[in-house]
Design goal:
The complex is a heterotrimer of chains A (301), B (332) and C (314). Chain A has 301 residues and is mainly α. In chain A, 80% of the residues lie in helices and 0% in strands. Chain A is globular. Chain B has 332 residues and is an all-alpha fold. Chain B is built from 16 helices and no strands. Chain B has helices at 3-11, 14-40, 43-63, 67-88, 93-114, 121-126, 134-153, 155-163, 165-170, 175-205, 208-214, 220-245, 249-267, 273-280, 298-304, 309-312. In chain B, helix 3 packs parallel to helix 5 (93-114), helix 10 packs across helix 13 (249-267) and helix 12 packs across helix 13. The longest helix of chain B is centred in the middle third of the chain and has 31 residues, at 175-205. Chain C is α/β, with parallel strands linked by helices and 314 residues long. The relative contact order of chain C is 0.14. The chains are: A mainly alpha (301), B mainly alpha (332), C alpha/beta (314).
Chain lengths: 301, 332, 314
């Protein structure tokens, strides 16, 4: 028993594991915060698109030796502008526009990496590698995530009002355009941070799944935030911890955990779960059938 | 560099010939599917299915069955699971899709690190068209050829299903068969493309040709033709360029496709950016001839409406899949 | 021109006159919401029937049940005496969608859309035969859209768009035609043209079910009415069913009711009044009702209120 415990405690004896767990938890928390808004607005594709779009920026930054966050941010803004422009000036549907821009940028990143295989590891960018994160990269992630959290703590209510009813928000004097801009800036910043923990392909999970899970569990927005952030933090922390025993794939473990929790909520949620809905539907059906037999409301001509 | 040498030099190599055949096949079948995805608004579906095939490949390896079978099963499972979760919960479709495919992809990665396979993760993710064998080429030709045949034979039914599913149902077409048939065809296309461009870049090939053709024509049959032409020329050019600059082949093909799209986006005679601008500057145009969206795109407006409303006021409305008849949710 | 449609041979379905029979229809959705309960009505051939009710009254659900999109929780629907599935497979039902449900940027031409009506008659590969092309030509001719056949559908005006989809229903040769809010967003000329066409089809024995909240035009062209509010409140011939009392029951507090009369309208002592009931752009006007409410309502006021009400409804 104690041998098992000792085995389980091993990750905590390594500095790099502590670093990985805390950085992951922080990133997971702030991404979960944003996920509540993204999921409700139906902007999940944006999370995926940003995650893929910043790859060329990161690759470019590594090639010229600049901070990766700066490159990623630049590429993210380029992607957003590109999408907005194509959407505004063509008759393509939004999903096609987004898909077109992000895959193109991703291909660009891939090409850059293939031309400079020594300075860039495309696998690290796409899959993340928090266990081997360099100190200066970890510092960038922590600064980004912490700053985003502070900003969100101040404007989360304004964001909620803006996304719920933009006209009303404008009516009470909120600068909705600025708020939305800030939101997307935060989103790309957090995407950049998440890139380090779970990689470009799994960013979408961090910025969608916790919010969606919480959405099945509550009807109140502030609780939604609390539940989502709790899920994001715990899964990321535990995921990083578990990846010690699996020699990597931190991102995969974190996302698998989040998905499992979502599926559990999907079935078992007290009000919006499948089992509860089935019960409710059965009751309503029986009632409808019973009433249709007893009452003869209809008068056919 | 002389233009003849640009093309003839790579042709001296067997692996380049195979690569070219492979990218042409994949380009053509993806282009045909892309027309439907772009019109149906299913671009994210291509994204989702292609990511989701990863665990299927690993599991197929463990079980010793053909990787294509595992990939196909996983891709289809993703599509079905998405439909199931969406139908049974109040979470939006795009969110559900994101959850399912990222979950499957993440799980695939975990599996991959625990299972010793002879596959390179990089090759699955980004393709390795220069390393295809003749057997790969034959396998792809069979899958892609079969898919192409089915799509082309049933292209009118599929089009009608994308355009007006209610009418399709009312005239007795098997709408469910068409729906799942399209998903099956999409999964097959993705599976056939993995060796050439990998599971991430195939998304681009499933969007760009259709989007390019959509800006060039108002007739569907022509759209199919243009998409295939665009994709095939991009495949040829991209493969050769990658040979000369020694870069990733899949990425080069996708970038050439994107370049074609950009050209069309700017210069398309009817729907191009410059043309639209021209028309905007001439106020006296007869109403019937102004191209471009006269009404707001349903995909754009529908997507963002009333999302938070559901937090406050959930339930009440029938959560029916076929809500198309009562189009105006806002009014209810 | 009209008798072309009459002489069509349509196998078994020709022998059966068009009819819709809805018996005790109850539809409960998976989320537990019962949209329609115990709805019953019957319609025969050669009829135009209005399906009237507020939003959320179950109009769409009834449509869906008739087209077999939802399975009844209880009760049944029969078309031409056949179960829905069978009727659908015999191409009996044609459907004209609401304009909002159509992607007008879709790369199809007018003639392509009309040809889609013929798919149920075609072979496996949907290759149009000579007859199919002929039917498409006829249908386009009938709605007066032949000149526009090579246009992309997004390039048409609102009324033209509607006519294209009507042509599709004609080409399909369905004996039961369902029209979903056909008069929203079209001009008066087109409305008249469509109504005339529907009357022709009625003469030819077709059965049309029109969902509408455009009350004013109902007595104009509908001979039958079904009033719906989560169940059928009343159904029958327009003259006896489309009464003020039934409408008040159907619309509850949703409708505005204005009475005008006396010196507000004319100088003499005619005691008859005008009663305006509306939730929409075309108020329904009753003549000769005895006064129950305030006397001095001016027509201008009423109009203003109607407009306001209409805004609130949108």
């Amino acid at each position: 028993m104690s041998a098992l415990l000792a085995e389980l405690a091993v990750p905590f004896t390594y500095d790099y594991m502590w670093k990985a767990m805390w950085v992951s938890a922080l990133v997971g928390a702030v991404c979960a915060f944003l996920s509540c808004y993204l999921m409700l607005k139906g902007w999940s594709l944006m999370g995926d698109a940003l995650g893929h779009s910043i790859v060329p920026g990161v690759a470019g930054a590594y090639i010229i030796g600049a901070p990766f966050a700066a490159g990623a941010f630049f590429a993210g803004i380029l992607a957003a502008l590109g999408m907005a422009f194509v959407k505004q000036h063509s008759r393509l549907r939004e999903d096609a526009t987004i898909g077109l821009v992000f895959t193109t940028l991703f291909a660009l990143g891939l090409l850059m990496a293939s031309l400079h295989p020594t300075s860039v590891s495309i696998q690290t960018i796409v899959l993340g590698n928090i266990l081997a994160i360099a100190d200066e990269d970890a510092l960038q992630v922590v600064i980004i995530a912490a700053a985003s959290f502070v900003v969100l703590a101040f404007i989360w209510k304004d964001l909620m009002v803006t996304f719920f009813d933009e006209t009303y928000a404008r009516g009470i004097g909120l600068k909705t355009r600025t708020l939305k801009l800030v939101f997307f800036t935060l989103l790309s910043a957090c995407t950049v941070a998440a890139l380090q923990t779970v990689g470009a392909c799994l960013v979408i999970a961090l910025v969608v799944t916790p919010g969606a899970t919480a959405y099945l569990l509550t009807d109140r927005f502030n609780r939604l935030l609390v539940i989502a952030v709790a899920i994001g933090t715990v899964t990321s922390f535990v995921g990083a911890y578990l990846s010690f025993f699996l020699n990597g794939a931190t991102g995969g473990i974190i996302v698998t955990l989040q998905t499992l929790i979502f599926l559990a909520a999907f079935y078992l949620a007290p009000k919006h779960g499948v089992l509860a809905a089935r019960r409710k539907a059965r009751v309503a059906r029986d009632r409808a059938l019973a009433e249709s037999k007893s009452a003869s409301v209809a008068e056919a001509a | 560099m002389d233009p003849i040498g640009f093309f003839s030099e790579p042709f001296a190599y067997d692996f380049m010939q195979r690569a070219l055949g492979m990218s042409l096949l994949v380009g053509a079948v993806c282009a045909v599917l892309s027309c439907y995805l772009v019109l149906k608004g299913w671009s994210l579906m291509g994204d989702a299915i292609s990511h989701a095939v990863l665990p299927g490949i690993v599991i197929a390896f463990v079980l010793g069955i053909p990787l294509a079978v595992g990939a196909f099963a996983a891709g289809l499972a993703c599509a079905l699971l998405t439909g199931y979760l969406k139908y049974n919960s109040r979470v939006k479709e795009d969110t559900v899709m994101g959850i399912v495919f990222s979950g499957m992809f993440g799980f695939g990665l975990v599996l991959f690190t625990k299972v010793e396979t002879d596959q390179h993760l990089n090759h699955i993710l980004f393709g390795n068209v220069l390393g295809v064998t003749t057997a790969d080429l034959i396998e792809t030709a069979i899958i892609a050829g079969g898919t192409l045949l089915v799509v082309l034979a049933k292209r009118r039914d599929l089009l009608l299903y994308c355009f007006d599913p209610n009418h399709a149902r009312a005239i007795g077409l098997p709408v469910n068969v068409l729906h799942y048939g399209l998903l099956v065809l999409l999964s097959l296309t993705i599976v056939s493309s993995i060796k050439a461009v990998g599971i991430i870049l195939v998304i681009a090939m499933l969007i760009a040709p259709g989007a390019t053709a959509y800006l060039l024509t108002d007739r569907f049959e022509r759209m199919l033709l243009i998409a295939v032409l665009v994709a095939c020329s991009a495949s040829v050019l991209g493969t050769f360029i990658s040979f000369h600059i020694d870069g990733a082949t899949g990425a080069c093909i996708v970038l050439v496709q994107a370049f074609f799209f950009l050209l069309v986006f700017l210069f398309s005679p009817k729907h191009g950016l410059l043309r639209l601008r021209e028309l905007r500057d001439q106020p006296g145009m007869p109403a019937g001839t102004i191209p471009g969206p006269a009404e707001p795109l349903p995909a754009l407006s529908g997507r963002t409406d009333g999302a938070l409303q559901q937090v406050v006021d959930q339930g009440g409305r029938p959560a029916d899949q076929h809500h198309a008849i009562e189009g105006r949710h806002g009014a209810e | 021109m009209m008798n072309r449609l009459d002489t069509v041979k349509r196998g078994e379905a020709v022998a059966r006159p068009a009819s819709i029979a809805v018996n005790d229809l109850t539809v409960t959705y998976p989320n537990g919401f019962t949209a329609v309960r115990d709805a019953s009505f019957e319609l025969g051939p050669g009829s135009i029937c209005a399906l009237v009710g507020v939003n959320g009254s179950g109009k769409s659900t009834v449509f869906k049940a008739i087209m077999g999109f939802v399975t009844p929780t209880a009760g049944q629907v029969r078309l031409c005496g056949l179960p829905v599935e069978k009727a659908i497979s015999q191409n009996i039902v044609a459907y004209v969608p609401q304009s909002e449900d159509v992607d007008w940027n879709f790369p199809v031409l007018v003639e392509d859309v009309v040809m889609m009506g013929r798919y149920g008659h075609m072979n496996f590969l949907r290759i149009p035969s000579k007859k199919d092309r002929l039917k498409v030509d006829e249908a386009l001719e009938r709605v007066n859209m032949s000149a526009y056949r090579k246009r992309q559908i997004g390039e048409l005006s609102g009324g033209q768009k509607k006519r294209v989809f009507l042509a599709r229903a004609l080409a399909q040769e369905g004996r039961i035609i369902l029209l979903d809010e056909p008069f929203t967003g079209i001009d008066v000329t087109t409305e008249t043209a469509i109504i005339n066409l529907l009357r022709d089809l009625r003469e030819a024995g077709h059965l049309m079910l029109v969902s509408t909240h455009n009350l004013g035009s109902v007595p104009d062209f509908c001979d039958q009415v079904v009033l719906l509010n989560r169940t059928v409140l009343a159904a029958g011939p327009t003259a006896s069913t489309f009464t003020q009392e039934n409408l008040e029951r159907t619309f509850g507090g949703v409708l505005r009711n204005f009475e005008l009369g006396g010196h507000a309208l004319h100088e003499d002592d005619d005691a008859r009044r005008i009663n305006v009931i509306t939730d929409d752009e075309r108020p329904l006007v009753f003549y000769g009702v005895k006064s129950r409410k305030k006397k001095n309502a001016k027509k201008q006021d009423a109009k203003k209120k109607t407009a306001k009400n209409q805004d609130a409804d949108q």
